[in-house]
Amino acid sequence: MPQATPKLNAFPVFMRVEGEAVAIVGGGEEALAKARLLAQSSAVLRIVSDAASADLLAFIAETGATYIADAYDAAHLAGAVMVFAASGNEALDRRVAGDARRLGIPVNAVDRPELCDFFTPALVNRAPVAIAIGTEGAGPVLAQMLRSRIDRMLAPSLGPLAALAASFRGAAEKLLPKGNARRRFWSDFFGGAPARAVEAGELSQAHDAAVGLLLSNEPASGHIALVGAGPGAEDLLTLRAHRLLMEADVIVHDALVPEAIVAMGRRDAERLPVGKRKGCHSKSQAEINTLLVELGHAGKRVVRLKSGDPLVFGRAGEEMAALRDAGVAYEVVPGVTAAFAAAADFELPLTLRGVSSSMVFTTGHDLKGNSLPDWAKLAISGATVAVYMGRSVAAEVAGRLIEAGLSPDTAVAVVENASLANRRRFHGTLADLPSLEARADLSGPVMTIIGDAVAGANFERSEPLAAHRQESVARAAAQGVSQ
Ligand code: SAH
Questions:
Q1: Ligand 1 mean position to 447 CA, how many Å?
Q2: Which distant-in-sequence residues (6+ apart) come within 8 Å of 344 by Cβ?
Q3: Choosing from 188, 254, 345, 452, which is the catalytic residue?
């Protein structure tokens, strides 16, 4: 037989307190904590204490709460809809609880569950939306942990969005028949253009979008979010990226984005890998652009997930242009780019006072011609250089920079799989860099950072690049091949 769900001994309700008196008896920390919690509501606080702390007095002055500076008396509870016994003194709290019961007012006594008619929840406040978390005494730490998790999931704009929804309820009920049409309106309202406009702080635009939804019979228009997934570690995803992933109908992702991040989407979301990794079957950029436009026209909410930051070597420029041309709405959500993750893994200051005050993001794939690109000149004048996709051109990069006048002794840091548990770090000089190309043992993505600021990194957990260089030199010598 299936086990019955355990019963709740405290049942959550939302109590009307607008303009009502809530009495808090006590003058110390316990009373202040309850007063702070209740101040998130529009109740009129009545604080009773003949010995209020300085903090509590400041709170009273700040919020305009009613203050009864007297020894407690049952008469102080008259007319209140809730009472908190928060004096920190057991005998007094017991008396307050007894008086409240006699008067028929629900009471909460701080840290004395046996005296409580009700418990106060941990609260996620997006007024008018509230999420109350109760644990029936399993512990405030658990409740706070859940609170912060839920808090992270919900956009700060949820409150204003719910308020806007309330103002549309009458109209929706009048204009749309109950059932599918009305349900679709609300799902487009909370998941589509009105919600996005509120999030962007454009309230009047949100209002117009909601009116548009109400009056048109068209399906909601689609939206593409170009989202940075960060360098690989799941918890380097931004909260916004996480939220959009959970809302997306379709997730279009590159091969470099780990499965664990793609899996954060809804279980019923469609997942479309579009490859883009050497040796993998992958779609061309033009095919990806077309796919995104088609999904947008089909009214889908799409997350286009790219590794790192979408605007750094992510071909986002082409995707945005295609979406703009096709009139499909989109937004960009930044991510932690690989250079930053690699620098963090190496404790490497990308700018270093007196040493380096500028930084270059490059691929090194533009070094083939005769003239040096501008970034090489910047490197020579002291910029820190982050080389993306640089493994296969390591020798070219090192050779051309040395030729152009950068010292062969310039420090170099290399990170494979930055931010991930299987990361590997290497350090050396520009002269050692070419050895990277021959290394078949590096199968993950590799970031190379060049410049004097690299000398400020922590090399405790890195291997010297030179060790490998010597090995390959020795091997070559043994084979009688000149390098
Ligand atoms: N948009 C991405 C870059 C895409 S280009 C970003 O902002 O990070 C792909 C290159 O990024 C790889 O060849 C590699 O040089 C670098 N890269 C991506 N993830 C990496 C990681 N976890 N560790 C090291 N390099 C990484």
A1: 7
A2: 418, 419
A3: 254
| pLDDT tens for each residue of 317-350 | 999 999 999 999 999 999 999 999 999 999 999 9
CA of 444 to the centre of ligand 1 (A): 10
Instruction: Quote the domain boundaries for residue 61.
Output: 21-120
Q: How many domains does the chain have?
A: 4
* Residue 254 appears among annotated catalytic residues: yes
Ligand 1 midpoint to CA 142 (Å) = 37
Q: Would you say residue 238 lies in a domain?
A: yes
Q: Model's pTM, two decimal places?
A: 0.76
* Beta carbon of 232 within 6 Å of any ligand 1 atom: yes
DSSP string, 164-201: HHHHHHHHHHHHS-TTHHHHHHHHHHHHSHHHHHHHTT
Dump pLDDT digits (tens) for 273-315: 998 665 556 789 999 999 999 999 998 999 999 999 999 999 9
Q: How far is the CA of 416 from the centre of ligand 1 (A)?
A: 9
Same domain, yes or no: 367 and 449: yes
Cα distances (angstroms) measured from residue 351 to each of 296, 347, 383, 448, 449: 41, 12, 8, 16, 12
Structural domain contains residue 103: yes
174 a catalytic residue:
no
- Say yes or no: CB of residue 230 within 6 Å of ligand 1: no
Do residues 353 and 301 share a domain?
Answer: no
Please, which pLDDT band fits residue 234 given cuts at 50, 70 and 90? very high
CB of residue 22 inside a 6 A radius of ligand 1 = no
Ligand 1 close to Cβ of residue 306 (< 6 A): yes
